[in-house]
Structures are given as C-alpha cells and as structure tokens.
Amino acid sequence: MGRKVAFIAALFGALALVGPAQARVEVQWWHAMSGVLGDRLNELVEKFNTSQDKYTVVAIAKGNYDEVTNGVIAAYRAKRPPEMVQIAERGYMTMLLSGAIVPVQDLVEQKGYKIDFSDFIKPVASFWSYKGRMSAMPFNSSTPIFWYNKDHFQKAGFDNPADTWQELEKQLYAIKSKGISECGTVLPGDFYWSLLENYSAINNQPYGTLANGFDGLGTEFVYNKTKVVSQVARLKKWLDDGVMQIAGQGFSPEQLFTSGRCSTFVNSTASHGNIERNATINWSATFLPHESDIDPPLNSTIGGGAIWVMKGHTPERYDAVAAFLDFVAQPETQMWWHGATGYVPATNRAYALARERGYYKDHPTREIAVLQLSRGTPNENSRGFRFGNFVQTMLAQRQEVEAVFAGQKQPQQAMDDAVKRGNEILRQFEKLNAGKTPETERP
Amino acid sequence: MSAKTRRREEAGLKRANFGDGPGLPTLLLLPQLLILLFFFFIPSLRALMQSVLLSDPFGTNVQFVWFDNFKTLLASSDYRQSIAVTFWFTAAQNVLTLGSALVLAFATDRIVRGRSAYRTIILLPYAIAPAIAGILWAFLFNPAVGPLAQVLHSFGIAWDPNLNPTDALLLVTLAASWKHICYDYIFLVVGLLAVPVSLMEAAAVDGAGPIRRFVSIALPMLGPTIFFLTVMNFIYGFFETFAIIDAVTKGGPAGATNILVYKVFVDGFVNLDLGSSAAQSVLLMSFALICTLLQFRYFDRKVNYGV
C-alpha cells in the first residue's frame, strides 16, 4: 500500500516537473556530430536552452552526414521533418533546389532578428549564400590544414615542413630513408576534398567550368586538364615508394598520425579537439603545401556543414528556430564553438574577439585555418565548389583514383574517366532541375 | 454434440478444420499477410514505380523517364563490373563455404569423444553479427596493424587490401565464407545423421575405408541438402553480405568489392540517385525470383525428403 502511494506521489511530482516545460516551444535539430564534437554541440544547445525560458532545442544525433541526409529526406517525405538539420557542404545544391527548405536569411529577418550577414568571413559567406542571401546558417565550417610531428622533422634536420610540394617531398623521403618513421604521411580518408579540390583552389586550377558551378547548372568538370593529374601521379608515387600509407577500413588516418607512426597528415582543422585529446606526440600544424611555381597561393575552401531550416512548421516553432539561429550567429557563441572544436569562427567579429583575447597565443594552430581561408583574393577557381549530385561525382572520382593506386589505370586515363562519369552525373542533375538554373552571383 | 459438429464428422473432416467460412483462417493468416503487404508488396511496388522515374531526393521534382534508368545502368561499365564481382564473389564463397563445411561435417562425424564440443565451437561464428565479423577480419588483415597481415608480409607477400583489388576481394570472400560455414555445417551434420547406418556398415564390411564410404555413400545421399545449401549460399552472397562489405572494404578499392546489393545501397542512400537504385533493386529482385523458380522447377522434384 505504502509503495502505491509513493508511486502516485512520484507520478504527480513528475507531472509537476513536466508542467512548466510544456510552456516552452520545442524544436528539433538533427545533426551529424559524434565524439568530442557531439559533446560540444550538446553543450552549445544546453547554453541556448538555459539562456532563455521560451524555447527548447532538442539536438538529435542521426549518424554521419549521409545518414542525417537520408533521415531528413525520409522524414520530409513522411511530412514530419525536423525544424533544423545539419547538412554537409557537399549537399548544398541538393538542399538549395529541393523546394523543402526555408532560406535562413528570409526567416531571421522576418522574425525581426538583426544578424549582420555581411560580417561572415568571405569563403563562408560566399559558399552558403545564393544570390547574395544566406540560404543556410553556417555552423561548422572547416578547411584542411597540414599536421606534422615536430620531433620527426627535427630528427631529420628540418625546422618545419616546407611550403611547397616539391620541397616537402624531399623532406618526407628523407624522413623515411633515415628510418625516423615508417611512413612520411598517411592518405586522408577525404583526400578528394583536401588533396584534389582544395589543392585546385590553392594552386589556382579550375575544377569545373562556369566558376566551378557558381554560374549555373551547365557546369562541366575540367580537372583532367590541370595539375590535378600530376598530383594524383605524385600520390601514387608516394604510395609505391612507401612514403605514404593508407589507413584502411576500421582505422582512421588520424590514429596513424597521433600514434607517431606516420609523420604528417592532411586533415580538417576540426580535428583539433580529437588530436589534443589523443595525441601522445609533439605535434603542430601549418598551411597546406602548394606547387613551387604558384605564387602567391590562393585561399583554401570550406567544408563542414550548415544548419538548414525545413519547410512545413508552425510560426511559433519558427520563432524558436530564429531565436536559436540568432544565438548561433552571436560572436560569443562563434568564438566559444571555435575554441571548443577547432572549427573556423564564421564571422569577422568572432575572429577579432578571439584575437583580442589572445586566444591564438596559446593556440597558434587554431588560427591557420582562418588565415588560409582568407589568404589572397578569392577568384573563380577558389571561391568554392557548387556541383549538383556532388557526393555522387566525388565517389566516381574516388573510384578512379583508387584504380590509379591499384595500378589499373594511368593518372591521365583515370582522371579522364572520372570527368566523363562526373559530367554524366551533372547532366542528370541539370535535367532534373531544369529551369532552376542559378544566375550569376557574386556575393 | 451439436448438429454442426455431427455433420462435420459425417463428412469425415478432421478436427483441424476451421469451420465453414473463410473467416477464421483469414484471421489467423492476417498478421503474416499484413507483414508481407507492408514489408514486401508495397515496397516492391514502390521500387517498380521509382525505377521508371527520375526524381530528386525530396520528391518535389519527379519526371517519368520510361526505361532510361535501366538503359543507363546496363550501359555503364560500373554496373557490369559490379555484376562480374558479385558472381565471382558468390561463386567463390559458395565453393569455400560448402567445401569447408563438408570437411568439418565429415571430420566431426568420425569423432566420437568431444563431438558436441567441436560442433559448438564450429557453430559459434553464427552468433557473431556480420558487421563485427567484418571489422574483425579487417583488423586481422590490416596491412599497417593487423597481426595476420604481418605474417603475410614476413613471407614477402605485399598484402594490402586497401590498395590491391584482388586482396580486397579475397578478404571479403574469406570473411563472408567464414561467417557462413556454420550454417552449411549444421545442415550437413543433420544430413549425415540421416544416412542409414546399415548401408555404411555394409560398405565397411566390404572393405571400404571411411573416405570411400563418405564419398560413395554419404555424399550422394546428401545431394538434396547440398543443392539446397548451394541456393541458400547464393542468396546469402547476393543479399546478406552487405554488412561485411560495408565493414571491410566499403565496396573499394576501385569498385573491386562493390557487389550488387552494396551498389544499390550506395546509389540510393549515399548518392541519392533513387531511380537508378530502384532499377537495380528490380533487377536484383528478378534474379532472386529466377533462382527460386529454377529451384522449384528443376530440382525440388528430385529431392527425396523421406530418407
């Protein structure tokens, strides 16, 4: 009997707790962050939820970027999409032309928030906006940087990694031949992003026509006629000579680097959190190398994701969404997120704030991404990549590069085939989205 | 005794009869029918429809393209490579699995002491989830850290499944076979139990050794079981090895392990090319249908279940 009473009391207690919470408007945000990044994201949402008493954002991890995308597609088709979803940069065109989203700038302005969209740093703003208006809220923007093992370089008699691929190659071969480490570098899991796409931007090589797709859907890949071919040949040579290794399934390149097995690796600036936690080595990071005949090297381009707002919700819920987006865009939030994760601060003000507070004195490698992103004047080749079905064209390219690594194809042949396959995929996207051709835009 | 029951008894019907109307049997079948409806018929119909459409992932933009998806598919070298890989993989896996299971069944049939302990050990892999099994093999043979890869390297074999398509295909074949041996094994053990002891004894009296007895008597009597297992192995290789491929190679390198069912997944859920993915599912489904029909038509009638 006593137990029953206690149970009923507990029930009422629980109801009393639920009561006031119901007054809050609850919105969902599906995301793809896991590990350290996932913990930080939850902290961010918690900060927002405790900062006011009207809205609750519920962050739900839905797996990797592909799984989040699939989840939101299925939910949208079932007419039950979340209010917000984090989508990777590669899905930009798919989301933009989907007819399923509310452009964020329209939403926050309509709700009366004053976010200074012109303050977003250039590569970020130009990537996520369409016809000069922000389509998604930049959230986790990253760019690949070059990580290295200081001790290995010092033992081999070098102060730092070289700036150019040509000099760097000599260093990596020296490190290998002196037996300082088993491999000079490890192939990044997303090498297509860092070593082919960003390589093209930095070295001022065109990747596709029509300003890499910024000027319309009729774009075609052209990287089979640029330095990308010799870049693939270089990677193949490094693999053959044992200077570069592939981590393979089940292992991340990061593990081979942080354990001290490989001396260098190229990876997103967002791995700061993980590397600081896991690395037992004396590491540092610097700019990505460039070709010796390119001077000056251009900016790199961004990766990562942004927050998209989905169609089909009530005005009260959009109030909550707008409030949250406004919170995300605040310099304080941006600066906190930048420090907690290694992602780039999205706005100039947040960057200035980090500098003012002397953040980069203690964390010099955190600034590399920003400096590399804002280096020089972005041109057609370095503004970014805006291709439809970008995941699909990338996988085709990846397969062709692997054929080179396996010795089945010559680099030129493989890149020709990759471009041919990629262009067919682009034509399919163009056919499907005919009439939605974006006009020339220059943010 | 009611009039109804009496009438039924007069008609010579058994108790298992469900009465007069179709009501009760339908009711009892309903759960199964509903499951089939929602998890097979409706999705199949959707796949058939989707396979003749070109649509964006969100379904806001849909075009009817007749059989373009099929035409594109059959013209692509990528898809042809996938077919070739699938058949190679499935056939090799079949031979390996059945061969090992037969040897193991023969061996444990001969053993008297500790037979059930051996059987239990052999059956263990079945309890391991395919993805875990995949990761295990990927780790053992990882060229950088895997102990078995180090052994291969010490023999001067440049083993690297991340780089070399042949190595990758070999690795997934091994992993998939290892995972499935126990399935074949359990059927073969039961099959062997059903071989009449009198026949074996007679052969033994005539001077036939254990291997001779196994090959000339047990094996032919296992014929139907082996055929059944061959079909099951093909279906396993075609549809159920997905998790192993995903964990060990993700279809790479250079598409070397991109078997049909994995390609359906990648094109549908990663590339978001729903039309092509649906067309591939339709082709796969037709293949499974043909397999089943062949089994029923040509082989099932030869099977003698009353051993």
Descriptive keywords:
heterodimer; A: 443 residues; six-stranded mixed beta sheet; globular; disordered C terminus; B: 307 residues; mainly alpha; 13 helices; flat
In words, what does this structure look like?
The complex is a heterodimer of chains A (443) and B (307). Chain A is of the alpha/beta class. Chain A is built from 20 helices and 13 strands. In chain A, helix 2 packs antiparallel against helix 15, helix 15 packs across helix 16 and helix 19 packs antiparallel against helix 20. The C terminus of chain A is likely disordered. With 307 residues, chain B is an all-alpha fold. In chain B, strands 1-2 form a two-stranded antiparallel ribbon. In chain B, a hairpin with a 6-residue loop joins strand 1 and strand 2. In chain B, helix 4 packs parallel to helix 8, helix 6 runs parallel beside helix 11 and helix 8 packs across helix 10. Chain B is flat. Chain B starts with a helix and ends in an 8-residue tail after the last helix. Classes of the chains: A alpha/beta (443), B mainly alpha (307).
Distance between the termini of chain A: 71 Å
Strand content of chain A: 5-15%
- The total of helices of chain A stands at 20
What kind of sheet is the major sheet of chain A? 6 strands, mixed
Indicate the percent of residues in helices of chain A: 40-55%
* Oligomerization state: heterodimer
Judging from the principal axes of the Cα atoms, what is the shape of chain B? Answer: flat
Main β sheet profile of chain B: 2 strands, antiparallel
Estimated share of beta-strand residues of chain B: under 5%
As a percent range, the share of helical residues of chain B equals: over 70%
Q: Runs of chain A with pLDDT <50, length 5+?
A: 439-443
Mean pLDDT of chain B: 87
Number of strands of chain A: 13
Query: Order of SSEs of chain B, N→C?
Result: HHEEHHHHHHHHHHH
